[in-house]
Amino acid sequence: MAPYTTRLIVLGVVRIFGPAHGYLLLQELNSWQVDRWANVKPGSIYSSLRTLQKEDLVEILPQDHAELEPKAIYQITDLGLAEFDRLLRQAIFDVTSPTVATVMAAISFLPFLPRGEALELLGQRQRLLEDQLNKLREQQEHFAEHTELAPPHVAEHFYFGAEVLASHQRWIESAIERIQKGAYSFAGDPPLWSPPADNPVWGDSQG
């Protein structure tokens, strides 16, 4: 996972659902199963919220001091929006991350981009993957010509890597086709979804 992935995920969920309590943000991310595909643990989310608040990327809203147990309510700032936009584009271009976490994070927030830009960025990612696949094939050929470099079965590393890249390319191709046909709602489109007020996780946070 790229080191900025947790930062992008937390900024993104605050952007979608804020203002909201940190616990409710955590509950939402749990419903996304980020602990499985990004290995993001509850402690990491709270730590990230505190760090983002210190950097003025999220802010804690004033609360009614009459509350017996006031909880921090987080909302993204203008600086946070700019950082989120930068990290989202970085995640789309990142084809070197050793896990799927970074691209999964990018998929989660892709509709914040205009449809045309999303298509353009996915097309650029597709070309970057093609370059990476060509380099892998060159390495595979070099290994085949120099069998003294490692045990023969190490060649399976190249086969595996090539299959991963090829499957990733197939996904991008199909995603581009769906988006071109009008799937999903992007920036500037009429919204197709918003957090429901009666959601058991979010209902109490939509004051």
Give the key terms.
207 residues, mainly alpha, 3-stranded antiparallel sheet, 8 helices, globular
Structure commentary:
The protein is mainly alpha-helical and 207 residues long. Helix content is 59%, strand content 4%. The protein contains 8 helices and 3 strands; from the N terminus they run αβαααββαααα. It has a 3-stranded antiparallel beta sheet with strand order 1-3-2. The chain is globular, with a radius of gyration of 21 Å. The model is unreliable at 199-207 (pLDDT under 50).
Summary of the model, kept short:
This protein has eight helices and three strands; from the N terminus they run αβαααββαααα.
Which class best fits the helix and strand makeup? Answer: mainly alpha
Low-confidence stretches: 199-207
Widest beta sheet: strand line-up: 1-3-2
Count of helical stretches: 8
What portion of the residues fall into strands of 2 or more residues? under 5%
Element-level helix/strand string: HEHHHEEHHHH
Distance between the termini: 35 Å
Radius of gyration: 21 Å
Biggest sheet character: 3 strands, antiparallel
Helicity range = 55-70%
Give the overall average pLDDT: 85
DSSP strand count: 3
Task: Write down the oligomeric state.
Answer: single chain
Shape, per Cα inertia axes: globular
